[in-house]
Sequence to fold (719 residues):
Amino acid sequence: MADAPTIESVPLPRLRRGWRLFLFFTSALVLTGFVSLLFADLLWRSGWSASRTVLLGLFIILFLLTAVGCMHGVYGFFIRIFGTRRRITGLKPYQDQSIEGISTAIIFPIYNEDSVRVLEGLRATYESIERTGQIGKFDFFILSDSTNPDRWVEEEANWCELVRDLDALGKIYYRRRLFNEERKSGNVRDFLNTWGKRYRYFVCCDADSVMSGETLVDLVKLMEVNPTTGLIQTVPSLVNAESLFGRIQQFANRLYAPVFISGLNYWALDFGNYWGHNAIIRTEPFMQFCDLPQLPGRKPFGGQILSHDFVEAALMLRENWQVWLAYDLPGSYEEAPQALIENAQRERRWCQGNLQHGLVIFGKGLRGVSRLHLFFGIFGYVASPLWLAFLITFDWIYCVQKYTGLSDIPVKAFNPYLAGLSPTEHALLIFIICMVVIMLPKFLSLIDLSLDWPRRKQFGGLLNATGGVIGETIFSTLHAPLLMLWHTRFVLTNIAGVSVGWTTQRRTADGTDWLYAAQRHWGHTLIGLLWGWFTWQLDPGLFWWFTPVLAGMVFSIPLSVLTSRRVLGTRAKSMGLFLTPEETRPPMELVSLRSRMKIHELTGDETESKRCLPHAGLANAVLDPYVNAIHVMLLREKELNPVYAGHLTRIGAGTEAVRELGEKLLAAGPDKLKASERMAVMADQRVMVWLHQQAWVRPEEKLAPWWKAMIREFSKREN
Fold:
């Protein structure tokens, strides 16, 4: 990216942002100061100590983060009630803007994903743009980093079939990298270095993204009428959830996000953030300024930046390019994990990436608002070990009080208005205030919904939406302690130097089985039981205060299993709970996606059985003349890229060594080759042509038994 031509960016107009930042964060600080004084007064009444000083410090940090979240809800609520022009869609008229002659690339970086789902999402997006009459302004790119040979071959075959179905030759491209350097960010950089100069903008999608054609056209128009804008991030709606867990997350996203994101936009304005997908980006400044640095030191904190999106937004802002949140622009969708464990696996990767921002946050020249985005991203995970430390410190104070034999001699509160309250009543007051701060944004979201009749109907009515909020709150109460333990472990393992691997996200709703849940949650259950026994020994009254925290741990196994079940999600839907607008009034893009995925599900037995065969992708690429031709064609096209020759040298491709590996593959079978050797064979188009010929003309006695079985299976399938 660094070799891209330089451009002159237009300085940002001076928006009146300072007073908004001051007002917003002062509100959170004042609220935190008030409640912290109440808490300090409570601690003073029972006798001050070093442990109480630690407890107060932890309380201030945790409550401040909670207060900031509450202010997002409060400010967002009033913005939605009274409206604002300080948003990207309200700055200038854009609907009549022409996009003639403007080229935009829509890219789908993927890594060992289900190619059927990826391409059906792409199909839905393609057909939606086609309905706008603007399909000629967009090109699509599938950017594969897949390391699984079966996925690689499946992607190629499905891509070719999609191009044929849509008559989209020259509109939908497929490229697989030989080396997965720097993961997704490296994948995007490789695309930009090769294709970037052809496109004024590019839209980065995730493997499960779907976007409406109208939204994409509007994004291009918005970029055109705002020439100092470098990036516009949409707010994707969670869709297509089937498990109970997925439906709860989806409901919370759709009900609460409009209020929260409106509050975020209040203080961020054109200093917004990037979430890595479903965003349009101006290509030239991104290529020029967003080549990510390697962090100093060893992994997990050093090396490649995992959560690249926050940093890329900060780098754009540093060079005076605006970044906006198009929070009121509909038509942007994504899917989410369907179970607690799969969600935690994704959180593990995000945790390491966000903790790396501790080194980025002090980067030279970054905007103060960018540092705020990075700070809150870091504390999204650091808050969990702080909460755990708060609970442990609280228990420690109780333990010292009981086992040292010191008498409890409460004194009057400093605040004269609290003098008449007992310590228990004082503590209850603080607890109620904390609960109000936590619950207020949810309550405001319900009020916001009640004032919008069409939107209220899309959630199944106010009564059903209220029931959904109650159910979501109960689930969140049980889920929060599990996230606390998971996030604490993630943070501590990162500090210990353990780096996360690059794994494929599980995106199905098949459900978690009991044994797998027990393997993943036995530690949570044990901690909950031991902690509950300990608090009961300290004080039965304290035990009941801790019940909400302990219940989520003790019942983590059934909670994980039952909420992953599709049948419970379906039952909740039939009861009108956790409904979202995309279910009650589904857009055409999602109707198309769901119907085609249903067809694949009903006719997918043969495909699944082929996947279960060992090395099925390699067998298809060699034996099937159609698949072999597609594979070889793409390899030949890749050789036209001058960079490819260097990659071939790195893996030894194009030499006699690969032919020898091919001979070994035929004679001994794929199990006798290393994974890297099989990939080297599949990356050489001449050897793949030779293998196709040899597999069909060689006598059976000169082929490994595996080949004989694959040939019989292929012949049976063809007949």
